[in-house]
Amino acid sequence: MSTLQIALVLLAFLACFLAAGVWVALALGIVAFVGLALFTNTPPGINLFQTFWGSSASWTLAALPLFIWMGEILFRTRLSEEMFKGLAPWLNWLPGRLMHTNVIACGIFGSVSGSSSATCATIAKVALPELERRGYDQRVAIGSLACAATLGILIPPSIIMVVYAVAAEVSIIRIFLAGIIPGFLVMALLSGYIIVWALLNPQLQPPPEPRTTFVEKLRAARNLIPCALLIVLVIWVMIAGFATATEAAAYGVLGALALAAWSKSLSWANFGASLMGATRLSCMIMFILAGASFLTVTMGFTGIPRALAESVAALGLSPYALIAILAVIYVLLGTALDGISMIVLTTSIVIPMIQRAGFDPVWFGIFIVLLVEIAELTPPVGFNLFVLQNMTGRDSFYVARAAIPFFMMLVATIVLVTVFPQIVTFLPDYVMGAPK
Amino acid sequence: AQTRWDLPTGYPDSIFHTVNLRAFTDEVRKATNGQLDITLHTNAALIKLPDITRAVQTGQVAIGEILLSTLGNEDPFLEADGIPFLAVGFDQAYRLYQVQKPYVDQRMEKRGLRVLYSIPWPGQNVFTRVPWKSLDEMKGVRFRAYNPATARLAELMGATPTTVQAAEIPQAFATGVVAAMITSGTTGVASKSWEFSKFYYRTSAFHPRNVVFVNERAFQRLPKDHQQIVLTAAANAEKRGWLLARETDQESEKTMAKAGMQILDLDPALGKALLKIGEQMQQEWVKRAGPDGEKMLNQLRTPK
Amino acid sequence: MSPPADASQRKPSLPRRLLDGLYLSAAVLAALCVVAILLLMMAQVIGREIGLQVRGADDLTAWFCAAASFLPLAHTFRRGELIRVTLWIETLGPARRRRVELCCLACAAIFLGFAAFAVVGFVVESWSFNERAQGMLPIPIWIPQVSFALGIVLLWSAVLDDLVGVWRGRLPSYELAERERRARGELGQGA
Ligand code: NA
Ligand code: NA
Hints:
heterotrimer; B: alpha/beta; 6-stranded mixed sheet; 9 helices; 18% strand; C: mainly alpha; 6 helices; 0% strand; elongated; disordered N terminus; binds sodium ion
């Protein structure tokens, strides 16, 4: 059987198991196991053992449960409610009003956390109940959140960027800087869509908040202080060199606990419930990640991503055609693989290719990160979809449909950074000088 | 019939070890007319670095590459090439390799592994943010340590051994989480060290080696002529690799200098002090490594 | 803790309570591992400030992270929080749905059976080879890996548990748990 036929068979298997309702992590595991048993001569058992263990016993992943815990604590305090109270009068004039908090909050949290799942879980826990309570459209709230949460990997720090930087040997600092302007661009486009949608669908908007004077607005803004303090604390410990990006998560939890204690909403029951909730949610995410890395190994042994990339290399395309084809391939891989796997499985072939075509590897890094963001949103395997399914009880396909318009904004970003690569390269070149 | 082997490595594509591995697999493929096809999997995409030994032992893959001294926790003898100042510079490192080889081969044989070849990393040198002239200046400095030997080295220098994951080094330097580290110039170039550190001190403290080994059963299943081809290609790879290591070292110094780093030799007094620390570490190692360690050390010290 | 596995409101049987207790204690242990990660990271931060290296803190963190992800599997499964695609299943009538549930559970049980044997086998092998961790803490690697074996075996048991239950005509535990969450208003109205 040819490599591409094997790929199709495996994908069909995966689709069947998932559609029938087999748990996602197990469906990934079953397909990976069957794929190894049928198409390779490496024993599936030990591969299962090593990939599940290697994927979960990970120091970088350890920030995930902490950030999720932080969100669970904040959810159980009045902090989120207060934050919305503080923001509401300021956003009254803007079409879409508090719906924009999803985008802003994800942008801010994205500068603290390096993962999109952690961003998604934290902001969903805090923002979704508030938006629902205030009568905002659930579909748009969920869709915008699913998409905005991918800012977690586009705005530094970012686990995906670190993986890419190591695999492609580009400067981590440079690529972190490169993500900032595209991050703002994505935020602007998402907010722009919310404005347009709000203007076109006035009947779906909740009744406006009462008009307030400037002084009242300022008074309401006092409610923002605790949250602002928390964010400033976490960013400050990173910049001041008290903690690495991963350790900052620990400060986040301690800060959230302190705020909860200060606002008198910390009880043992709350503490326990938040901890157990965080444990279950991160267990779900990490188990799927482990399943996905098992599938990655099957892909590696069967050589599917390599064959795909090699067949592209053999085409001898013009630079833009190459980028277009690569985008399609990464979107296809992204339906079933997680972002880290997409990168480590393909860089050895793709990086030389794009360098030959004259693209800057730092630019390409941001391009790949944007495609990984898309992968977080495409079924059947999209981590933001899973997080939101777990938290809202709506099926991941519903979440995916709700995210489509916002997803298109990501596609627009990809087109924009391809046509105007300066969006990516300007900041690193300005700060660090042009690459040598 | 065609045999297909998978070869996982934990390192990225452009590191010279990987370039050399690729040349090795190409040579084997060509010489066997494609009958033995070794697929190289870089970037730890297939198997993570710490799992590769066991993966080859159990037949999960037929062949693999690891950093030898990572097995030191299981068998301290295998740490020898990771002990600072035991063998300084490429020539001493080669001598250490020759002396160490029979012991290593025998130990790997016990695991069902056949060592094909072994290539050193360029000398481990010290990267700092501020000038370093005497041992006193290292007092209390946060020094990145990545294994027990480098942690002990930092301790004996009076520095504070600090754990930072490789991926977080640039950030950690930039924000002051660490202020010094020891690694090869190659790694320095790969991580663009000039963006976060200024000074590079040639210590050549040790040359840890990568080894490439094959599962003995998988090797025995090959036809005799293919076995010979693999061994010849391995011998070629070893020759090429040692040369590559030296060349890469010089090139990376040039690259770093061009990027604005100061490439410096140690102050002689400081060099002496470090050698003394090295002696203490060797004594500590011999205690752990047992009779074989002592035997090997004696061989190393008797001139040829 | 968990809802009665039977539609009638009998007091849960002893084996039921024992199993649920087992799943829950493993999850609580995992939660303590999350706390341990927090403490370790803080220890590392503080240690650095006062010039003290917390030896092997990153290895320990990784192992606790693994334990935190494997130990709560059974509990998370029974709470309906392991994600699956329910788009199609929800359109089915009760009888067909039960048959599909049985298929899913059977697939899961077979796979987890293989997995449990493989994982336990390799942990035992790590132990008999006396394989050691490669980082700063040279402890035998089977010690942290026990959490993996335990978590998978417990998940297998939870799946078999539900397989038997659904076979006997009960509703699956995860289904009941999700209905309960919905009734408490923790989830939206459903797709
Ligand atoms: Na981020
Ligand atoms: Na996807």
